[in-house]
Design brief:
Blueprint: E1 3-8, H1 11-23, E2 30-38, H2 43-56, E3 62-65, E4 73-77, E5 84-88, H3 92-109, E6 119-126, E7 129-137, H4 143-157, H5 171-178, H6 182-192, E8 217-223, H7 226-238, H8 243-259, E9 263-271, E10 288-296, H9 303-319, H10 325-328, H11 335-338, E11 342-345, H12 353-360, E12 363-371, E13 377-382, E14 388-394, H13 400-420
Parallel strand pairs: 5-6, 9-11, 11-13
Antiparallel strand pairs: 1-4, 2-7, 2-12, 3-4, 6-7, 8-14, 9-10, 13-14
Helix pairs in contact: 2-4, 4-12, 7-8, 7-13, 8-13
Amino acid sequence: MKIIKINSITPVQSGMLFQYMLTNNKSLYMGTERFDFEGNIDMEAFEAVLADLSDKYEIFRTNIIYEKLEEPKSVVLDKRKIPFRHFETNSSEEKNRLAEKINEECFEKGFDLQKDALFKIYLIQTNGDSTMLFSFHHILLDGYCAAMIADIIMNSYGRNISKENEYVPFSVYQDWLKKQNISESRRYWDNLLSNVSDVHKLELVQFSSDRDRNNGYLSMNIEFSEDETKKLSKIAADNHTTLNIYMQWLWGLTLCRNFSAEKVSFGTVAAYRPAEMENSEKILGPMINTIPVVFSYDNNESIGGQLWNFSRTFVESMANSWIGLGEIQKSIPDCENIIDHLFVYDNFPEMDFRGIEDSTGFKIKDFCLEERTEYPLTLEVSKPDNLRIRFSYDSSIYSGESIKRLAALYKTICINSFDAE
């Protein structure tokens, strides 16, 4: 293997690399995707597809090099085989247990950014029942394009790739970044974050009797019915905003109510693909960043007015998110206080399940994405049909009971908002 292309890394990649090196945590910023489907993969045909895709898309042949360099670089190799392992089991129960075991082992091992292939595939099959796991690092793939990669692989196997399915190399975005005015974005964040030192930390009452304390990262879900989901979506639309922004506004309100605070903050993941960049929605690479959200509540202002102001600021923050959290934090006197947990709204392109089923003959039964960040609490909002929110938390810091109570308060405030209009 030899290096055929060298690029500077983006501000977002630089922030991920900094945390990776600081914590020595190789599972930081990695994710897994899981497909459950009816049907068996033809091994020879599938491995041929993977070889073709590795040759075609440089994302599968990219590493981040930083040792003995003045500044880190993204390097593309001429050849690399996509790591693929296949397992056969005797029952669906055994298959599911093995899939969960492999998933956990992926997070335990993590990635060596300089040496490892940063995208791996595992397939577990039993009597026409299959599970496929994709393991990847966000320094190369965000959740948005991880969904695109899954589409590429499955549709390529089904020979369903057309000109419309062509994707754009990450270097196009890297070239766009070089033309941006970083001074203007710095001024935006300086102005926005000039008075945030008094925000309230996420300090929850802990319950020592909780059996799951110090048991690693755990999660719990809250779900909304179809009717509740429609009502939340309608309120957002009636106020000329998105469901993502409205749910984040309601989360800020929840924190203010829980702590009797006037101002709170949290982090959100900005997946910003510039409208002025042609085919930005087809770029394969990490175009995400964690940015701070500061929420203030004023009893003397109407809910509609507060939501409008919050929405306007949110959109402006998204447009200035490209400079990276490292640059943003220079505007914050208390960096540790401003972001102590994360709010993620999954806004990925819809998977072409129908196309996959038509081209492969498989029936997709389930699809899910799991990610790990450095934050002790992450809210992940998804809307496959009905709204669902997963609270993933570090049980050594937060007790399950405290998270359960905070989640229940959030749902109550969301539902009460139906009448607040």
